[in-house]
Amino acid sequence: MPVSQQSDKTVLTHPSGASAEIYLFGATLTSWKIANKERIFLSGKAILDGSKAIRGGIPLVFPVFGKGKAPHVTASLPQHGFARISHWKLVNSSDDAHTVTAQFGLDHTMISEEYRKMWPFDFSLIYTVKLTADTVETHLKVQNIGDKAFDFNTLLHTYFSIPDESKVRVVGLSGMDYVDKVLMASAKQDGEIAIRSEVDRVYANVQSTDLQILYGNEGGINLRRNGVSDIVVWNPWVEKSAGMADFGDEEYHRMICIEAGQVAEFIALAAGGSWEGSQILSVL
Ligand code: BG6
Fold first, then answer.
1. I need a surface site. Which of 10, 157, 183, 199 has the fewest CB within 10 A?
2. Which molecular-function annotations from GO does this UniProt entry contain (predicted)?
């Protein structure tokens, strides 16, 4: 079966052997394998029972990035919003000679009363995962199905599995302005990004559609964006890792988050409006 539903997750299997797994909790993609090699990082301490956002994979940030700030309507929502901590439904699946597809849905009737009070808008999210022999595409459609406009941020918060943080280079952001959330300062990227300490940066309005995460002589990943303009780069390093109960102290060596989305500014979506954005990952 190209798409099979297990109790808590959906498994996509491509005739080439490529596969992907998506938990209904958060519609969090937790695995993407090509040539039997895992490309996505999932913490050994990740909690998978729906009591906490999954630490790893591709959690979906919506409708706020980080903590909202008063007086904005997102101020009381949990960090990174409710999409990653709500139970989604598998709404569709299909396959043809090249692509295996699964679609997941979340709307305002499916979130908790508590979140609904915090964010009182009628919305529908459709998240589509398309697996081919050598790519995985994750695509989010946001629809405002109510009669009031709303603002949102969104992010495909992708944790990549890497051989060793000291070998990783992120290429394609040189010359871009960013906000450094560690130093609380603005700066301009000069050349490639290397991980030598805690990194938490927001690059707004990135021009090139593609960036590369290179693993020394062990290949890497190409990330192509469609319809989203910002990139967040995150590695928690020593102290932040020690402070996270669902993340091993040494796991920062084996992951980097490169997160494509719309976070520097809110997107305003008029009543009846819709918005779409996606990323396509391919192995280099
Ligand atoms: C990143 C943020 O997107 O997510 C970081 O830029 C944050 O500041 C990280 O620490 C992880 O967030 P969380 O809520 O999953 O611990």
1. 183
2. carbohydrate binding; glucose-6-phosphate 1-epimerase activity
Q: Characterize 104-118 residue by residue with b for buried, 16 or more Cβ atoms within 10 angstroms of its Cβ, and e for exposed.
A: bbbbbeebeeebeeb
User: Element (H or E) spanning 259, and its range?
Assistant: strand 255-269
Q: Whose alpha carbon is nearest atom 5 of ligand 1?
A: 200
Give 116-159 as a 3 state SS string: HHHCCCCEEEEEEEEECCCEEEEEEEEEECCCCCEEEEEEEEEE
Predicted pLDDT of residue 260: 98
Ligand 1 atom index nearest CA of 244: 16
Preceding amide of 63 cis, omega within 30: yes
Query: What is 3-164+231-283's CATH topology?
Result: Beta-galactosidase; Chain A, domain 5 (2.70.98)
- Contact (Cβ atoms closer than 8 angstroms) between residue 212 and residue 203: no
CA torsion through residues 204, 205, 207, 213, sign: positive
Ligand 1 pocket test, pick from 43, 61, 64, 157 with the greatest ligand atom count within 8 Å of Cβ, gives: 157
In DSSP terms, which residues pair with 150 in a beta bridge?
A: 269
Q: 6 alpha carbon to ligand 1 midpoint, in Å?
A: 29
Question: Which of these is catalytic: 157, 250, 251, 253?
Answer: 157
Given the cut 0.90, state whether the ipTM is greater than it.
yes
Identify whether the C-beta of residue 11 lies closer than 8 Å to the C-beta of residue 31.
no
139 catalytic? Reply is: no
- Kindly report the average pLDDT of the chain as a whole number: 97
pLDDT of 1 reads: 75
Both tokens of residue 276?
């779409």
Question: Residue 155: pLDDT above 90?
Answer: yes
Active site residue 259: yes
**CB of 232 closer than 6 A to ligand 1?**
yes
